[in-house]
Every structure is written in structure tokens, then in C-alpha cells.
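Hello,

I think I submitted the NAP job twice by accident. Can you confirm which output corresponds to this input? Input:
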Amino acid sequence: MPEKVLIIGSGPAGITAAIYAARADLDPLMIEGFQRGGQLMLTTDVENYPGFPDGIMGPELMEQFRKQAERFGTRIISSDVTRVDFSSRPFKVWVDEDLYESDSIIISTGASARWLDVPGEEKLRGYGVSACATCDGFFFRDKEIAVVGGGDSAMEEALFLTKFASKVTIIHRRDEFRASKIMANRALEHPKIEVIWNTVVEEILGDTGVTGLRLRDRVKDSVSELPVEGVFMAIGHDPNTAVFAGQVETDEAGYILTGDNSVTSVDGVFAAGDVVDKVYRQAITAAGMGCRAAIDAERWLESQHG
Ligand code: NAP
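Support: Only one job matched these inputs. Its output is below.
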């Protein structure tokens, strides 16, 4: 027997979909991915998720989410989906050689941090180059480090890193931040944070660990070196849709296209969260989208049997 609902991904969207689908008696199967819990696993304090007036750590919030999904009987597989075939029903989803079939699918695979793609970056990833301050900040106690980007993530990372680093330099390619005023001001006012404006990183220097950055000032068109022992990328995200290529319609950046609700280009395949949404990208909006996707899937399944 095929599953009724198979959920791919386990961030706020996927887990909320699982809670709703389980409570609608659809006995959902969730393939949570190796990086379970999504991007909140890589954050520190979540201060804007309603219901937690004192804030909550991202990983703790996701652990609570997961427990709630399990409480209503969600079955969870802790692997990555390696292939899908949505060309006929039941839909087919593979984890390596294991095949799962389902009448409906909810895609909630989220998005991943973007990298600069400059010389030195790949070689030094894990040796001073990171996209996760929460994971790696601890290693930079009393060291000088840099954060690349001008959005809320860059501010958040920079502020978090001041707990460890002796100095944090934010490198931004323009002369104003994209970040919200409150976050930008917190960073600008912090005594340990400096900002280098209108500047891009051209190379990450170092052999076995980061020793510095080669920077280009885009206004003066001049090159300089900044000695740092670590650099954190906070330059946005890309949707995790490679495995769905050619199966559902996406926009040019790879975000899954949905209609007014969570319906994708394939009847019976729904999508929710950051894999769809490049505008809001909040835990609460992803959770809301997951709820919608589960309700859409439930109604669609009913319409198939009616
Ligand atoms: P973002 O808002 O898209 O900002 C990305 C930043 O990186 C921009 O400043 C961009 O520069 C820069 N950038 C992009 N590509 C670059 C490249 N190749 N080289 C150099 N710089 C590059 O992404 P985000 O900061 O990850 O935030 C995403 C969403 O999550 C936003 O909606 C944000 O509000 C939300 N968020 C909220 C919180 C919070 O409320 N606590 C925390 C984190 C994130 P330009 O400005 O020139 O485009």
C-alpha cells in the first residue's frame, strides 16, 4: 500500500505539515534528511517565535517541534531523499535503493547557505571558513574574524561572534545594510564590530587555516589584505531542490512554484516553507505554510476518493 502523505524535509514547514497530517489521521511518513530540523538547528536565540516570550534556542525549538510530530504518530526516516519520480501515481521517492510510494507528497526541503565561490574558500571550509556562527564560533575565542554580508543573518552572526572573537569585521558589498534597522543598529553600535563598506572578498588566504582575506574596494577599485583567522559567510540562501529537477516547476533560482495555496505544478505534490518562499523566510511563516500544505493535501486526497 502506498503512503497517504510523504513529507520530505523536517524544518518548521515539514514538521508542522506532519503534525497536521497526523492529526488528520493520514499517518504521515517523514523523510527528515541528514540535517534534520533545518536552518533553525544552526541558529542561537529565536526571539520572534510567538509563545516564547524569553526566546528559545533554535535547536531546542526544533526538538520540541519534532516531539510534537512524533506524539501524533509521525514515522520518521533519518536519511536524504536521493531520487524522485512524480510522473505517475503513486509518486515514487527513493532513499538510495529503498523505494517509498505515496498518494501525495509535501516538499519542505528548505534552503541552504550560499558560498562566495572565491579561491581558498572550499579548501579552507572547516578550517576557518564557515557559514554557521553557532556551530563554529566557539573556535575563535580572542581571535579576529570577519563576516561577509549585509542582511539580518550577517548582523546576527556578527553579534553572536562578539561573544568569542576579539574583533568582528563585517564586509559588505554596498554602502548600506539590507538588514532590519534594529539588527543593523545593534551591530553598528557594538564596540567589537567594525564595518568595511563597498567591499568584496576576492580570495581567502591561508594554507592549513585562514590567515586573511584579499579585499577589493568596489568604489576606489583598490585591493587590500585583512588579517583574520576566520570568516563567516552570511550572504543568503539557495533552495534545496536539486533532487526535484525536472519533476516540479521552479523559478530560475530553483524555488518551487506554487499557486495561491501550496499546490505545485504536479497534482498531488505540495510544497511549503523556504523551498517556496524567498521573501519572508521565517520559522513562523514556514510553519504556517506547512499547515496549509497538510490541509491542502488532506482535501486533495479526499477529492480523489470522492
Ligand atoms: P539576505 O537578506 O538576502 O541578505 C544577504 C546579504 O548578503 C545581502 O546584504 C547581500 O548584499 C549579500 N550578498 C549576497 N550575495 C553576495 C555575494 N556574492 N557577495 C557579497 N555579498 C553578497 O539574506 P539573510 O541575511 O540570510 O536573510 C534572509 C531572510 O531571513 C531575511 O528575510 C531576513 O530578514 C531573515 N532573517 C531574520 C533574522 C531575524 O529576524 N532575527 C535573522 C536572520 C535572517 P546586498 O544587500 O547588496 O544584496
